[in-house]
Amino acid sequence: MRELMNLNVDNLILQALREDITSEDITTNSVMPNYQLGQVELICKQDGIIAGLSVFKRVFELLDDNTEFDMKAKDGDEVKSGQLLGVIKGDIRVLLEGERTALNYLQRMSGIATYTHSIAVLLKGSKTKLLDTRKTTPGMRIFEKYAVKVGGGYNHRYNLSDGILLKDNHIGAAGGVKEAVTMAKEYAPFVRKIEVEVENLTMVKEAVEAGADIIMLDNMDKETMKEAIKIIDGKAETECSGNVTKENVANLIDIGVDYISSGALTHSAPILDLSLKNLHAI
Description:
TIM Barrel, 12 strands, elongated, alpha/beta, six-stranded parallel β-sheet
């Protein structure tokens, strides 16, 4: 994931900067028309897990590669309200122009890492791994999935080209579970696993008989999922999904699935409150 980030982030960050600066930062240019060296402090205003510091830094570097950083935390660190996370030094105009975009990335990514961590700790000691989904913000997927990993979760498929997941509408289009799995096996390279989303025990049996590699138990109640695990009996890996949140995940641990996937990791995590403060000339 780190290599994927390095190869792809610049274009995405530049798009975000262009969204915020179409021609100039008229406010900054009105009060700071000329170069002036300065520094500003990155302050944590809420307890959590920090994620996205390299992205935060890259925003300023793309505006001016002479910007300097003295970072006092690293991704994955538990941070506390009031903690100094770093000092950024450079052209005051650049510090002002990049502030909001840099914080938007860092706050969003740290919020996801913090929320993911709060669920991952509940699964600690069990065999079940916590997965994200494709329910990500457009243009932010690479950042959000990275943040999930920093928070202690794992990535499901990155995009539609990354893996086969036969959901209800795919099954409907194919004419049934057996037909969908058969067609996927004929089409896909043999190295690809085939995952099937099922909604009842009849579909579970069909998925097992069809030879699915992973069976996702979608929006089932707890007792039905336990019965499904018995039917599957180790013939496929298992995943449960459907409105999984911090509030209900503890109730799913003893079911014995291999994976729990949660769209809430990326679509419902609140930001972590961070701020750039004490800007002054040096």
